[in-house]
Amino acid sequence: MGVLTSPRSSTRFRDLPKDQQIGGYPRPGQLSGNVDELELDSEGRCVILEFTAFVLLGVYSPANRDQSRNDFRLGFFDALDVRIRNLAMMGKRVILTGDLNVIRSEKDSTNVAEGLHKEGLSLDDWISMPSRRIFNHLIYEGMVLGNRDEGREVPILWDLCRLFHPEREGMNTCWDTKRNTRPANNGSRIDYVLCSNELKTWFTHANIQEGLMGSDHCPVYAVMATTVMVDGRSVALQDLMNPPGMFSDGNRVRDWSHKDTLSLSAKLIPEFDRRRSIRDMLFKRPERIASALQQNDLANEKGDNVPEVSKDPEASDKLIEADIKLPPIIPSAADIAGRLGKRTKSTSNGDGLKAKPVKPAPGQKTLKGFFKPLAVASEAASAQTKRTQDADADGSQSSAMSSIATLSNMANLAESADNVKVFDPIEAKESWSKLLSKRVPPRCEHDEPCISLLTKKPGVNCGMLSGAMGGMLNTLE
Predict the structure, then answer these.
(1) pTM
(2) Which ranges of the sequence are coiled-coil (predicted)?
(3) Which of 413, 421, 363, 361 is nearest to 385 (CA)?
(4) Please, are residues 310 and 296 in contact by the beta-carbon 8 Å criterion?
(5) What is the pLDDT of residues 434-476, one digit of tens each?
(6) Residue 148: DSSP 8-state
(7) Active site residue 192
(8) CA nearest 41: which of 77, 9, 76, 86?
(9) Which residue ranges make up the annotated binding site for Mg(2+)?
(10) Which residues 6+ apart lie within 8 Å of 160 measured at CB?
(11) Of the candidates 156, 279, 334, 338, which lies 20 to 30 Å from 307 by C-alpha distance?
(12) Binding site per annotation, positions
């Protein structure tokens, strides 16, 4: 709809100058008006990019799950149809792709007639449902019953998968995972790659990848030719897909520059601006490094001389690495406090002000700490803390010296705790052996060994232990 704004701007896309907008935004009176324009854009269901060759729309249409979303779903399809038609009227080529959540015909779903029979509906009623009717108006060879709607007299887009596989059945792209209908290919085709009539000859193949697992959908793809026809002449596709002057006859002439950055590039998003490497996203940059790099950027803009170290990205990364504190080999007092599950109690200094408490380090430092018994260390640490607090109350020693003593003793406790035996491997092996070994049949009241009974009935329980029978009783039978 174009009512949102670009990063770092308060101007809506549709209000930008003509040379900075994609265009084709719905005009007053073109939409039904049942849904607000801002509401249609608020869910981020459509991303539109303009290349030199065409305008690409990536769409995730609302699903038809309940009646509460009917108005929004129809409003979305209505706005999508109007936007594509407006772009076509401007002379722009259009490619529409994504999960459109609509089935175009009976051939594109499994057992449609059976499902309609259960619901008491006819095929004409199903094909004329509002969202399906709008979609079939938009595509070539779409089934539209009766007269075409006003403003939708001419189709705009080709269904590429159906164009290359006109009679193929079972070309489903989505299946119900709860009922596990994918092995039987009981699903529907709701994912598409559609293109305007001018782009029809640009594609050499289109298909689905039904064997690629990992989702309830499967990928859909279309292959473009390396050389295409534009206005009666053969042009390399790379010349059309890239900014002017970057490629000539399919050969690169120049590299990318900041002037070629797309309007939706991550560099224009404040969260990713001025980042030097992926490491910046994982670690908090020290203040001195951040300020130095910021001054470096300002100096670059002014054309001033910049030190060589700040120009080198690897050098700045090394400085960042130097500021990242590695966990100590010997656990600190904060680490011990974190293991004990308690916060260290703050002590007061000579002025009566409370000192800043030591924060426990996040997580354990070694795997051994997970198995290590902390009862001894806990009791000793509690006793030492109590003695320190008593000493502070009596004024026998300063709070600063007691804090140092506490930290030193807790570090010694941590070092001694490392010498505690974690577990006995022989004992552990015997425990696992007892757990995983074959169960020994119990003895009956006559002190006779029972006989194990195994399930012989075919099925998932075949061969499993079903019970035991006393030896004396089994002998009498």
Answers:
(1) 0.58
(2) none
(3) 413
(4) yes
(5) 666 666 777 877 888 787 777 887 776 777 766 656 544 443 3
(6) P
(7) no
(8) 76
(9) 99, 101, 216-217
(10) 192, 193, 194, 195, 203, 206, 222
(11) 279
(12) 99, 101, 216-217
